[in-house]
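>> received
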Amino acid sequence: MDNIINNRNFILGVDGGGTKTIARLENLDTAQKWQAISGPASLTNDYDAALENCKKLLSELCAKADCKPSEVTVVFGLAGASNKEKAHQFEVSISTGYKAVKVYTDAKTSLYGANLGKPIAIVSLGTGSVGAVLTAEGKEFQIGGWGFNVGDEGSGAKLGVLIVKSVLSEIEDSGNVHSLLARIIVKRFGGVLDNVLTWSTSATPSDFASLAPLVFEYQDRCHLAKNILIEHVNHVENLIKKTRSNLQLPVILLGGLSVPTIPFLSPELRSMLTNAKGNSLDGACFLAKQLKYKVSVNED
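>> returned
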């Protein structure tokens, strides 16, 4: 009996973004699955929080399944993991006791989840943004994904920045707010103009992203919101074109910001889009199964 227990096979996939982290543990022998959710896990936005949230998730899921870390092969798909130094540091810090651990970008796990490991071009629009391609030859390419400070155009966070910049510019030009969107933003911060700038100096990418829905809500009633939306859509279309390049691949848009953005894309780009077959969490689990197989072959 002990030998049977010791030979159990578990894989664990983790999808960590700028807003939340979702993890799924699967017993490959019984097909039982357990899932849990925690706070953000972006290595470049808040490394310490990412490490703490992921450790909690792994511990929680192992407890739910009554399994030992040594039985579990883990793959993380994390925002900010394109920073190789931080990704390596994270992998070393969290891997103790587990059968095998790999840390990839959330773009890679999304890439493998979106079309279940088959060729595809994806663009993810969430708190951050990134493009990625998986070719028929099995080659992978990533476009963007450099984080809030130096990239993420077309993301919810950068859309929030566009909103705040536009509101501050309106205040600067006239000493007050006139557009509907600007009035709503100032009201959100207690009706005090200076509070907008004060908030923006310490706001996180998630904070900025929380403003993004306002642009879609008021774009048909406010010229400022409409202009911001046009700029946002330009960023998204540029990212799609750069990601797909000259490859004749279908495109999948992922992330919470993709749904409200799609209707405003050009007809040409909309005709390239196809529906996702899975998500980043599915991709992390897919890659965890591959890693589990490689580890098993090496052990034999």
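>> Strands lie at 10-16, 21-27, 33-38, 72-78, 100-105, 120-125, 129-134, 140-144, 251-254.
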